[in-house]
């Protein structure tokens, strides 16, 4: 069906069967497309602003550069859909299926993606600023250089996700699953990662300044040259973590588990390591100046050539 450039503003097309329909540059503003079958339809550059697409089937549909601002796509099927450079600002995609969808450079600012399935989705350079991604499935998703500033990712599944050079400043990642995720050079400044699972995660050169990592799981994580200045790592699990040349200046590592951790050449100046477990840890050439190691476990720790000036270790 060829409906190219058709004006269907406020049209009622509920339950319509339009597979492979050509609606390129069509005007469907405020249209009712609830439960429509638009599988493999061509909606490139179409105007779907405030359109009602609840439970619509848009599988493999072409929505490149389409305007879906404030559109209702709740529980819609966009599996393998092409939404590249699409405008989805404030759109409702709650519980939507976006598995393997192409959202590269798409604008999802303040969008509602709660419990949405974005597994293996392409969100490279996408704008997700202040977006709601609570409990969303982003497993193996590509979010490289994406803007997730102040985004809500609480309890989200980001296992093996690519967040390299991503902007996650002030993002809420509380209890999020970031196991084996790639966060190399990512900006997590002032981020909330309380109780987050970062086991075996790659955080090399990541910016975690003033971040909240209380009770976070960073076991075997790579934090080499990472910036954790003034970060809260109280009771965090850093067992066998690589913190070589890491900046932990004024960091709170009270009761943290650093057993067998690599802190070679790390900066722990004025750091709080009270009751921390540093058993078998490598602190060679580490800067512990003015640090608090009161009641810390340093059994068999390597402190060779480390700076212990003005150190507090009174039991």
UniProtKB/TrEMBL annotation:
Domain of life the protein comes from: Eukaryota
Pfam families xref list: Pentapeptide (PF00805)
Signal peptide annotation: none
InterPro entries attached to this UniProt entry: 5peptide_repeat (IPR001646), Pentapeptide-BTB/POZ_domain (IPR051082)
Annotated Gene3D superfamilies: E3 ubiquitin-protein ligase SopA (2.160.20.80)
Protein's name in the database: Pentapeptide repeat-containing protein
Record organism: Hyalella azteca (Amphipod)
């Amino acid at each position: 069906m060829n409906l190219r450039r058709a004006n269907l503003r406020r049209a009622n097309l509920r339950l319509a069967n339009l597979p492979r329909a050509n609606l390129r540059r069509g005007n469907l503003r405020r249209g009712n497309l609830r439960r429509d079958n638009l599988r493999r339809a061509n909606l490139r550059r179409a105007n779907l602003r405030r359109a009602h697409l609840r439970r619509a089937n848009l599988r493999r549909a072409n929505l490149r550069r389409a305007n879906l601002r404030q559109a209702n796509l709740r529980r819609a099927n966009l599996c393998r859909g092409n939404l590249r450079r699409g405008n989805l600002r404030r759109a409702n995609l709650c519980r939507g299926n976006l598995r393997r969808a192409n959202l590269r450079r798409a604008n999802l600012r303040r969008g509602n993606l709660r419990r949405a399935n974005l597994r293996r989705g392409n969100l490279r350079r996408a704008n997700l600023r202040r977006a709601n991604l609570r409990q969303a499935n982003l497993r193996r998703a590509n979010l490289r250089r994406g803007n997730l500033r102040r985004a809500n990712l609480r309890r989200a599944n980001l296992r093996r996700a690519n967040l390299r050079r991503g902007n996650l400043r002030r993002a809420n990642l509380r209890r999020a699953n970031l196991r084996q995720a790639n966060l190399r050079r990512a900006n997590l400044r002032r981020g909330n990662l309380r109780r987050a699972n970062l086991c075996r995660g790659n955080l090399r050169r990541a910016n975690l300044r003033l971040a909240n990592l209380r009770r976070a799981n960073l076991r075997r994580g790579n934090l080499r040259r990472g910036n954790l200045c003034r970060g809260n790592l109280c009771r965090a699990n850093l067992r066998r973590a690589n913190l070589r040349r890491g900046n932990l200046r004024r960091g709170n590592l009270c009761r943290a588990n650093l057993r067998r951790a690599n802190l070679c050449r790390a900066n722990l100046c004025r750091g709080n390591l009270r009751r921390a477990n540093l058993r078998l840890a490598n602190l060679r050439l580490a800067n512990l100046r003015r640090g608090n190691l009161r009641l810390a476990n340093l059994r068999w720790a390597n402190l060779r050539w480390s700076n212990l000036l003005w150190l507090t270790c009174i039991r």
